[in-house]
Design goal:
This protein is an alpha/beta fold. The protein is built from 18 helices and eleven strands. Helices cover 45% and strands 15% of the residues. Strands 7-6-5-8-9-11-10 form a seven-stranded mixed beta sheet. Strands 2-1-3-4 form a four-stranded mixed beta sheet.
């Protein structure tokens, strides 16, 4: 059966329109930092590029660019209209600076006209795995719902690309060639030294994940621990981890909202949880942590921050809100610290580890890509693509400084001397050891 001649002409017109639109955005193809392969097999751009965007259909580019914003582009990738061979981070590096520069109204209008000349997708995006939370933002029920959207994937999926302690936060690369397990162990030791843990201390981990920090702190520093999370699978895995290590008498995890916590603790850690709190609730968050600490206690808050110079529209990605972190909010570190001080904390130290997070994300992406088939089997292909895209984009944004990751060490004042050492020397004198640097606390 012979194809209708109009079908061939439509395909040629679509290929010409796609080339014209790409050239209008990126300039002459020989100067692109990436390659592009069309659905008909033709290729544009340099042949030695670190990545090639594959447009699988005549409508793929229109799907990426309409409606404007990162949601359409993300959906085009995760649902398979567009693919990337090679480094996704390189695609961000090649496209984002150009797209940010070309925001003049007249230029955007011209580009939109070119977009509308391309064929439209035959069906709307499937939007599988999109979040549609209900209820008031940051209410307890809604927070539980959105946390489960992100964390209640099969634990086997996370095991494929996280380290052996399943640390879902940046490692601490004391050497550039450190492997992921070494860097994550160094991060845990760094946190424990900053908190100056002593045998018998009561340690609270808010947003404890799969329990790796508590397992490390209890086994290496002799503390007693409690972890809370809103994810039942995380809680189950954390308690199984403690049981395997023979630590169940000293530490356990619960499904509990931090706002419902009671008791008094010598030290508190919160690693990668404050991003879920919401800017309007930061005062409540820090006030609760302050109330849970004994006088003189320390709170280490480890959280992603947005650069103050980043426009709000870039700080709050539509794609990430819909598919990755519903209701997640990033604020500048100055805002975070101001809320901590307003709640009553004294700021003792702030360390930005953004380069460490860029390196960590590259390890994660490489491990996820290497385990593609197993990841798609553990979750599915769309989930694999969501996480590959999300983590590659984050690596790009940490690398260029649009995002930071700050460890803020906060002290609950006593009204007198802090009893803290006058320098940070003890943090580093003990580096590489697994023994407490301070004697048991007198009670």
């Amino acid at each position: 059966m012979t194809a209708h001649p109009l079908a061939g002409r439509h395909e040629r017109d679509a290929a010409a329109g796609t080339t014209a639109l790409l050239s209008a955005v990126l300039g002459p193809p020989e100067g692109w930092g990436i390659g592009v392969r069309l659905w008909d097999g033709s290729r544009l751009g340099p042949h030695d590029a670190p990545a090639t965007i594959v447009l699988r259909h005549s409508w793929s580019l229109r799907h990426m660019l309409w409606p404007p914003g990162d949601t359409a582009a993300g959906e085009a990738f995760v649902f398979g209209d567009v693919d990337v061979e090679g480094s996704l981070e390189a695609v961000f590096g090649a496209l984002m600076p150009v797209l940010e520069r070309e925001r003049r109204p007249a230029h955007l209008l011209r580009l939109m006209r070119l977009v509308w000349r391309l064929p439209a997708p035959p069906t709307p995006p499937e939007r599988r795995h999109a979040s549609a939370p209900t209820g008031a933002a940051h209410s307890k029920d809604r927070d539980r719902e959105v946390v489960r959207h992100h964390y209640d994937l099969p634990v086997e999926f996370y095991r494929l690309w996280l380290d052996r302690r399943m640390q879902y936060s940046c490692g601490y690369f004391e050497r550039p060639d450190a492997d992921l397990d070494t860097a994550q162990e160094a991060k845990l030791a760094h946190i424990c030294r900053k908190l100056r843990l002593r045998p018998g201390d009561r340690l609270l981990d808010i947003g404890c994940g799969w329990g790796g920090l508590l397992e490390y702190a209890v086994s290496h520093y002799g503390v007693r621990g409690l972890g809370v999370t809103l994810s039942q699978p995380q809680t189950d895995e954390a308690n199984a981890r403690f049981s395997r290590a023979g630590l169940s008498d000293a530490v356990h995890a619960e499904v509990l909202d931090y706002r419902d916590l009671q008791g008094e603790f010598d030290a508190i850690a919160s690693v990668g949880m404050a991003e879920h709190v919401g800017a309007a609730n930061l005062h409540q968050y820090f006030s609760k942590a302050l109330a849970l600490l004994r006088p003189g206690g320390l709170f280490l808050n480890h959280a992603i921050s947005a650069a103050w110079s980043e426009p709000r529209r870039r700080r709050e990605s539509g794609f990430i809100q819909r598919y990755v972190f519903p209701d997640g909010e990033l604020v500048p570190i100055s805002t975070m610290l101001a809320e901590a001080e307003r709640a009553g904390f004294e700021v003792r130290d702030v360390e930005n580890l953004r380069e460490h997070y860029a390196t960590t994300l590259r390890h994660w992406v490489g491990r996820l890509e290497a385990a593609h088939e197993r990841a798609a089997l553990a979750a599915d292909e769309v989930v694999y693509r969501i996480w590959r895209l999300y983590m590659s984009g984050c690596a790009y944004n940490f690398d260029r400084g649009a995002l930071g990751i700050c460890q803020s060490l906060l002290h609950k004042p006593t009204g007198g001397p802090s009893a803290l050492p006058p320098t940070r020397a003890d943090w580093y004198a003990a580096a590489g050891t697994a023994t407490p640097v301070l004697p048991a606390r007198q009670r």
